[in-house]
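Minimal example, chain plus zinc ion.
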Amino acid sequence: MKRILFLSIFLISLLCVGVAPINTARAATQFTSRAPEAAPEIALTFDDGPNPVFTPQVLHILDNYGVKATFFCIGEQAQEYPGLVRRIRQAGDALGVHGWDHTALTKLSPDEVDQQLRSASIAIQQAAGTTPTVFRPPYGSTDRTVVDVASTLGLTQVLWSVDTDDWQRPGTKAIVNAALKHAQDRGVILMHDGGGNRSETVAALPQIITALQQRGFTFITL
Ligand code: ZN
């Protein structure tokens, strides 16, 4: 139920970027069904892994704080490091698809989009024994075709509401500030556990979690 509520945000957000809506009537209904006094919820998400250096560090921090997150894995990384995908799953974190090789999906034919998402989903399934139900398009590059193709594979699109820009390595403090400044109920924070040196992200993560916990946020997966 919480997951459906959460995904509703992104269906609405699709409207805002001009992509045709999916089931927005249901989304509107569920927005109003939530008790106003409920604790605010937020999702930590990590893209571009799994990475043999940084994914274990992120998992260790999450475990220390008793927090769950969602990892959007690149298919070829999942194929190369199936043990890490399995660890993510075994830690109770969620797995999503981030394409096979991080190609912008809007540049591809529908068949190629299908191949990107399908092969990545299979790699994750084979590693972790669970079939992903969410995907995040690389670069946030999406359109109706991408959403429709993903839908045929049972994948719901998830974007983000808070971009920490951690991939640019702006410094730990800047990552923490970006995450906290825009954090809000049912927000989704975008970070990276792969694709480069993520030591700043790793350093920022305990501060982000601590501050959000102090604000009363509950961490959910997608
Ligand atoms: Zn990415």
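The beta strands are 41-49, 70-73, 94-97, 134-135, 156-157, 162-163, 187-192, 218-219. The first helix runs from residue 2 to 16.
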